[in-house]
Amino acid sequence: MVFNTDFVIIGGVKIYIKDVDSYLAESFLLLYNSNKSNENKLLNLSRYNGERQQYVDKLLEAYLENFNNINEILAVLKDTVSVDNILKLNLNRNDNYQITLKDFWYLKRDWCYLKEGEEQIEIIVNSIKEELSNYKFQNSLFLGCGAGRLVVEFCDIFDKIYSTDKSFSMIWHINKLLNNVSYDFYNPNPKNVFKIEDVARKYTAAIDIENRKKIADKIDFFVSDVLDLPFNNYSLNTIFSIYFTDVIALKLWFPKINSILKSKGLFIHFGPLDYFFSDETEMLTAEEFKSFFEKNNYKTIVDKIIETPHLKDDSSISYQIYKNWFFIAEKQL
């Protein structure tokens, strides 16, 4: 038994968060604010009357489709939240990072099977698997799992995978794909494009039968908070942080992951340390990050740089290249 607490299910999503009322209110508000941004874009563009109508119509089509998609999730959450709980929240509603829904970026990479997305996934997965070839572990935990594809790629080396994200909508989208044949959405590109059709391409995400079987057999997707993970002490063999480590300062989440990882268990980091919080004093270099683990009785197994494209979109003439720091540490106690 690895879990130390019960869960609730909302809209098919398993949630292991103690103050679930506040969590649901926060999730609702973030989605609402994201859709408010879409609504403002729709209103502004609908007033346009000029020579670029074809361009505007493409964007209108995209924002409206995504608006309706988000509304579907809001409808699931609506009856679970109260005005009082929303008013108690202390969120910066003008923070663009907080109102930008990232689900569609990751659904496109993970479940549309496009060449550019598959390239990034293949580099990440093969790089990690090569280093794990001499290990045999029973279970693993993926932190910040997003849309879930990277998790599925590791099914062949673990008996059980626990996969979590704090985003309600991310886990909801995974469930949606597991229960439906396909899911349509847009990734609007108002700039950095060659052609009008590239301004707003429609994408269809789907989880094929083989991967759905892998998920049913081995993977448990759920919502939880990395600061209060629902696991018993020393219950996990491996903990993955792929593009998650830079979301929250290391000193905040290390005590919890350290407590649930078994002796000789592995912590695996893969990402660019592209910090998304504001406290610069906690934006550790890779050298400092490694030193922190070693001072806390971990042995460095891997310390290298792996370069990948990141969320590359072939409809855009611009994309990011990440120099990902790949770090594996083995717990010694």
Concise account of the structure shown:
The protein is α/β, with parallel strands linked by helices. It is built from 11 helices and 11 strands.
Report on this model:
- InterPro entries: CARME, SAM-dependent_MTases_sf.
- By secondary structure, this protein is α/β, with parallel strands linked by helices.
- The chain has a domain at 102-331: Rossmann fold (3-Layer(aba) Sandwich).
- The protein has helices spanning 20-46, 53-78, 83-87, 96-99, 103-111, 115-132, 149-152, 168-179, 209-218, 250-260, 286-295, and strands at residues 8-10, 13-16, 139-143, 160-165, 183-186, 202-205, 219-224, 236-242, 261-271, 298-310, 320-331.
- The chain has a nine-stranded mixed β-sheet, sandwiched between helices. A two-stranded antiparallel ribbon has the order 5-6.
- Helix 1 packs antiparallel against helix 2.
- The longest helix has 27 residues, at 20-46.
- It starts with 7 loop residues before the first strand and ends with a strand.
